[in-house]
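quick one, two chains, predict together pls
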Amino acid sequence: MSEKFRADFYQNFIEDDRWKYIVNGLGNTIKITLFAVLLGIALGFLVAIIRSTFEKTGKLKLLNLLCRVYLTVIRGTPVLIQLLLIYFVVFGSVRIDKSLVAILAFGINSGAYVAEIFRSGIMSIDNGQFEAGRSLGFNYTQTMLYIIMPQAFKNVLPALGNEFIVLLKETSVAGYIAIQDLTKGADIIRSRTYSAFMPLMAAAVIYLVMVMIFTYFVQRLERRLRSSDH
Amino acid sequence: MTTNGNDALIQVQHLGKSFEQLDVLKDITVDIHKGDVVCVIGPSGSGKSTFLRCLNRLEEPTSGKIFFEGVDITDPKTDIDKHRQKMGMVFQQFNLFPHMTIMRNLTIGPMKLQGRSQSEAEAEARKLLERVGLADRAQAYPSQLSGGQKQRIAIVRALCMRPEVMLFDEPTSALDPEMVGEVLNVMRDLARERMTMVVVTHEMGFAREVADRVMFMDGGYFLEENAPAEFFANPKNERLKNFLSKVL
């Protein structure tokens, strides 16, 4: 048993330096996820601000409409089709770094979900908080920034963490546009060695460990932000 | 900017406010002078709170004008944020900022809006905290305080902005009975120092003792207004008589 395991391990990871597929793939996965998360937060934040400003004040009507179209289309279609469309149609005739395409696709996709998470956070804050801020003399933007946002962020942190976990694993379809991410790397090994268990399990365990580490840090942040509730 | 010569601190002219089909305020005209303590009483739904919230435009008036320090603050061109700094407001539900310490609750306005340094803002906040007997709670969070303590802090938060007038929107209505006294005491001290105050309240004892003028509102109008002794001893309006017979 252990003899066979060792032989399998050698064949899948050591022979021809196949471990490099895993390591390089992991690097790509992390790079794409990281930048897509940042893009998603930026986009989501912007859309949430526009949407809740419209809901609170009735201003930004046109932008709000645009945001709603964005939310409907992005949340209503599979991320894989969005990725393929951006790669083959939007950038079909331009030479462009495939990682950049993936970052754009996953970032734009995640932004739609993050926007609704942020918006629900903003709407969950009692209107009295908003009025208290305005009555002191803060304008709309300052009230949002100093009073509403910090409380909203604390409330949505668990949902936000969840969205990033989903995003990390969703990037595993990047192989469809021939990006060698963690999943694709493991699959390449499988196609070379004709043994599926070990490379795919290795990829799965790496995803799992990443998610666990990430969850640990989110929980620590939650605890810190909760210091004002007693 | 529109100004006028009237020397009242707040001048309300033919103020009206409707929500959809409902006329909450119909025709309100009143002057509030510097140092006045005005109590507004009346049944629930009579428009008292709406009147108060129109004074700093938390509600947008639908008709009429409000002058504050001679400036028409209902004019859309007026920078209302500037004027709100001088109109402290205390809410029924306190509305302290739960994610900040008490000290931060008290200093964020003066520091961000009035350019005061942290040490200056904190020194002033500490002085006011001492006056309301809560100096030891500066580093606590709102959730660690009782209702009465929260409301005293909310008053101090408004005072830290050095307002010209304080607006109180049923400040004791959300409190347990044994905590009402401590909040009214703070308000009584303020009145004694001649702070201009407009107080929407159900505390008849407080109105009788502290107010310079008591106003009775019902159905979107001020129906009667008088010095408290006369107001409570000799009500003239039938609706007021009826109201007082139920609450006194």
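The mean pLDDT of chain B is 94.
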